[in-house]
Amino acid sequence: MSKKLHVAIVGATGAVGVEMIKTLEKRDFPVGQLTLLASARSAGKTLPFRGQEIIIKELRDDSFAGVDVALFSAGGDISRKYAALAVQAGAVVVDNSSAFRMEADVPLVVPEINGADVKKHKGIIANPNCTTAITLMALHPLHQEFRVKRIFAASYQAVSGTGAQAIAELRAQVHAIAAGQPVEKHVYPHQIAFNVLPHVDSFLETGYTKEEMKMQNEGRRIMHHPTFKASVTCVRVPVYRAHSVAVHAEFERPVSLTAAREVLAKAPGLDVVDNPSKCEYPLPLYAAERDNCQVGRLRLDCALDNGLAFWVAGDQLLKGAALNAVQIAELL
Ligand code: A2P
Question: 287 C-alpha to center of ligand 1: Å?
Fold first, then answer.
């Protein structure tokens, strides 16, 4: 019988944290004890797990005594401050923030792609950026067959990626507009309802955003492909949940649609939804709350050599965050 583990979730009340709790339950993860941690604002409130209400505690330096696995999703600053304390206390940390993703001794893992990297951990394992993880679920199987050189991509990212406050902001703006009332904005620099913002994360000197460069930087580590190039425009769209990405990929080897479909049909964690004549293609509305990502709109790219264009969608709270983190914990 497998050992029951003491699991802690840091940021348990957040958009991802709540999904982590549900994912542990759904996948029957061997939880012996569950500790839910958040800010002082949430201390004393409860969240359900396996039919019980678990009391949320305030995150403190000594929160990790006896914890085996700590799942962090409370932002980079909290991870930088508390992950080391969790490791010192004997826990293995799976971190959903970007704090450690590029550190050489921290494996950056999508279990379907580089699950074996988990073994190299020294206490912390990083969960990739959501848009990167969802894109690689389709790109990596194609890379194994055709060797990807570079991609051009544009993302259509749901507000859930920004967190619970952003979901509430979109909802409030939609209600205000429908009622003819003035729109308030707190989370994004512009109104997100009935708008699209070509701005995710902060801008770099090159003009790209940090989010846009994660595809190349994290993609190289996850695929073990140091020369992979990605030019991406990341766009926030008024969708509650699930990201979509339009990808144009150039490969070293000749690509055929038949071979690409075969490879994608066999890929773990991915469903091919590609029947344009019946208006069937991946949609964020239907990819939401599903574990598997979806790929479709497959076509030979008319502007690239050995190129394939496709559209991939996935629940950013699940494969892009909570599910991937729990899958990593399962590998441990
Ligand atoms: P809280 O709900 O108590 O503010 P999201 O990404 O959806 O915005 O969620 C962020 C998560 O990080 C929430 O669970 C939030 O808890 C938690 N969090 C934010 N600041 C802190 C903090 N200073 N200490 C502990 N948890 C925090």
Answer: 26
How many CB atoms are closer than 10 A to CB 295? Answer: 32
Q: Of the listed 130, 234, 248, 293, which one is catalytic? A: 130
Owning domain of residue 286: 132-316
Length of the chain counted residue by residue: 332
**What pLDDT, on the 0 to 100 scale, is given for residue 2?**
67
For residue range 95-116, list pLDDT tens digits in order: 999 999 999 999 999 999 999 9
State whether the beta carbon of 42 lies less than 6 angstroms from ligand 1: yes
Q: How many domains does the chain have?
A: 2
**Distance of CA 278 to CAs 77, 201, 258, 275, 312, Å?**
47, 36, 19, 6, 18
Question: Which single residue is written with the structure tokens 């067959």?
Answer: 145
Cα angle 190, 285, 238; round to 5: 5
pTM, 2 dp: 0.96
180 and 161: one domain?
yes
Per-residue model confidence as pLDDT tens digits over 207-243: 999 999 999 999 999 999 999 999 999 999 999 999 9
Report the C-alpha gap between 328 and 332 in whole angstroms.
7
Q: pLDDT digit string (tens) for 36-67?
A: 999 999 999 999 999 999 999 999 999 999 99
**How high is the pLDDT of residue 3?**
85
For ligand 1, is residue 74 a contact (CB within 6 Å)? Answer: yes
User: How many angstroms does the Cα of residue 34 sit away from the middle of ligand 1?
Assistant: 17
| CATH number for the domain that contains residue 244 | 3.30.360.10
Instruction: Take atom 9 of ligand 1 and give the residue whose Cα is closest.
Output: 14
Residues 155 and 105 in one domain: no
User: How confident is the model over 175-184, as a mean pLDDT?
Assistant: 98
Q: For atom 2 of ligand 1, which residue has the closest CA?
A: 13
Q: How far is the CA of 38 from the centre of ligand 1 (A)?
A: 5
Strand order from edge to edge, sheet including 243-251? 229-236, 148-157, 243-251, 307-314, 293-300, 270-272
